[in-house]
Every structure is written in structure tokens, then in C-alpha cells.
Amino acid sequence: MKLRSIETFWPLKNAMKASYPSIDSDLNTTILIIGGGITGALIAYKLINDGKKVVLVDRRDICSGSTAASTALLQYEIDVALHELIKIRGINCAVDSYRNGKKAIFDLRTIIDTVKSDCQFEFKKSIYFSSVQKDLPYLRNEYKARKEHGFDVNWLEKYELKKMGLNALAGIESKTAAVMDPYRLASDILIYCQKKGMQIFDRTNITSIQTQKGKSIAHTENKFTITADHVVHCSGYESTQTLDEKVVDLKSTYVIASESLPDLPNSFKNAIFWDTSKPYLYFRSTVDGRIIAGGGDEEFVDAKKRDKLLPKKEQYLLRRFQRKFPNINFKLDYSWAGTFGETRDGLPYFGKPDPDKNEHYVLGFGGNGITFSVIGMNSILDSINGIKNQDLEYYKFKR
């Protein structure tokens, strides 16, 4: 599956920090990680620091799949609003999931400090706003639910949003959010893990996995094998090709990035923005003064049809941005398309879909893929060791 269009901002900005070989011999390891994006990197970080022998492979160049297309808005909010998630999954799962997301942002900050990554992580506020009258009851219900369960939020009226340069009716301000460069962080974590002994191979496609005598034997396209005690699948939306259960609906999404603004408005220095429209729009800035706008989601059909829509979506996103922020001159510099997915409850999937196989999945589907991957990182050892874990229960397969 082609997960993104060719030109995305992050790889062009960073160039290549490290290169890795393809596999050229049979290997034995304790754990095989499939997927070399931000999820695979975080899982590798956890396992290598626990002293495990780890091999990581990716079918492409490292970090060149969904991670390269991510806009890296780090929020504790989930695609499904808290007051709706409570109805779907109950109070405990819903509130814990929002709290897990909040904790994940701070856990990520610790990892960044540990690996000494210059990924331009910045804490921000999050502004969840509505531009249409019919969405105001929904937004008020969400504000009430978050307040009731202890989340630090403020209600913003139209005049307060106008001071930020935002043309909207009302909003919820959350204190905890962040932005970063996901490509740089994933690259830096993998370099850190390699220095600690992890073997990394890119352009290594796993074509099948067999279970023999309690071991998992992964076969590569080039006829080599990797024998492991456990396999951890971190291949995101491509995992739909290896799962029997349908867990996600694939979507195409679109992103534009502006030229650097000489005077970036303070509102973008301090906050990220997203709205109540379905599918929602979102806006953030970068350290070098650009604004990134995303949305315009469509049902995913195939990569060619997704990418063919990019010129049309560029204009759509430009128009929508200009309606929201009429005083900012957005000069288009980059645009790209990517594939992501939505689950029924907006939550990720972790653990073993088949109890008879030592194959584990960490699938951070949705708009919170990075924070979900941090939550999965904190559950992976329990999954491998067969230890009960509340998150593995919340986010299990066949739920």
C-alpha cells in the first residue's frame, strides 16, 4: 500500500540522518518489529531499554511511510468526543483513554530528552472550536464532560476567539497539547536503539510468517528468514492486510504547508486549532514559522485516486483556512496526501489477535496515532509476557 504522496515536508526538511542495509542473511532474534516509523521506533525504545534482543525491518526506507506524512498534533483528545465515547465504551474506558493520552504527551517529552532529539517539540494549548450554530450544543456537552472528569479546560466565547484571529462562534481551550517533527524523532529514536545493539534493515519486505514449535519464522521477499520468539506488528494501516478482523476504515487525508511567515501570529505560537466539522480541519505552526493545515478527508480507494485529488484539496484547504483566519496571508509552499484510518470508537488496537501465535500488534489508528503509540509502548512488555493489563483490555481485538 502506498501510504502517502511523494513530496511531504518532513523528509525534505530533514534529509537523511542515517541509512540502513537490507537483509542479506538468515537471522535469529528474541523480538522482530515490523515497521520502521514512529510506532516501531517507540516500541523498539521500550524493548531495547528492557534488554531485549531486537531486529527491526521496514519494507521501505526507514520513516518513509505514514510517519513522513503525519502532521504530529499531539493531543489527549480523541477523534470521538469524550461525552460520546462514554456512551460507546463506558465512563472508565473513555475517561482513562483521555487521561492516557494526556500522560502520553509527557512520556514523549521524557523520551525526547533521553534520546536527545532535536525534533522541535513544543507544548501548546489546544483550541477545539465550532463555526456553525448547530454544533454549539455538542461543544457545550463536550466541555461539560471534560470539566466533570477533571480536565483543565476553559470555555471561549466568540470575542475571545476573534482576539486570536479566529473566525468562529465558541471553543474549548485545553491546557495540554504539543507539536513536533515526527520524522526527526523517529529517526533519532532508531539511531539511539541501534547504538544500544538493535539491528535495523530497511527495504526488507516480510511476505509471510509461520509458527513452528513456538517460534515465529518471518520470510522475506529475498528468501531470507528471521526467526523470533515474538513478532510485533507496527505497520499501521498496512496491518489491515494481515488481520482477519476488520478494525479500521481507511481514509485519504490532505495537508498543505505555507511559506514561513515573517511575523507568525501569537495565536499560532501558543496553540493548535481543530474544529467540530466532520471530517474536522486542523491547523498548527512549525518552528520555522510555517502554518500547516489539514483535512478534507475522503474514503480511501487507492493511492492514485487519492493523489489525483490533491490540487482540488489544496484549494479547498486554502479556502477553509482563509475563512477561519482571514487576516493571515497563507502562501502555499508544500502539499501532500496520506492514508489514515478511523475505528468505530476512535481508539487503538493493541495485543494479540490470535492467542495461539506470538504476534502482537500496536495499531494507533486515528488522529492520535503518536500518542496512541506511546500508550501501546507502555503495554507491549505485558503483552509479550502474558500479563493482564487494563489498556490491553480496553484496546483489545474483538472488543
Summarize the structure in words.
- It is a single chain.
- The protein has 399 residues and is of the alpha/beta class.
- Helices cover 34% and strands 28% of the residues.
- It has 14 helices and 17 strands.
- The protein has helices at residues 9-14, 38-49, 66-69, 82-89, 91-115, 136-148, 158-163, 182-195, 266-270, 303-308, 310-324, 369-377, 380-385, 390-394, and strands at residues 27-34, 54-57, 73-75, 122-130, 153-157, 170-179, 199-201, 206-212, 215-220, 225-233, 249-258, 271-275, 282-285, 291-299, 332-342, 349-351, 359-363.
- The strands form 2 sheets. Strands 3, 4, 5, 6, 11, 12, 13, 14 and 15 form a 9-stranded mixed beta sheet that branches.
- Strand 8 and strand 9 (215-220) form a beta hairpin.
- Helix 4 crosses helix 5 (91-115) and helix 5 crosses helix 12 (369-377).
- 51% of the residues are buried.
- The model has no long low-confidence stretch (mean pLDDT 93).
Number of distinct helices? 14
Radius of gyration, taken over Cα atoms and rounded to an integer in Å = 21 Å
Structural class: alpha/beta
* Percent of residues in helices: 25-40%
Sheet-strand content, in percent, reads 25-35%
Average pLDDT, all residues: 93
Largest sheet data: 9 strands, mixed
Strand tally, please? 17
Give unreliable regions as ranges: none
Q: How far apart are the first and last residues' alpha carbons, in Å?
A: 26 Å
Q: Note the overall shape.
A: globular
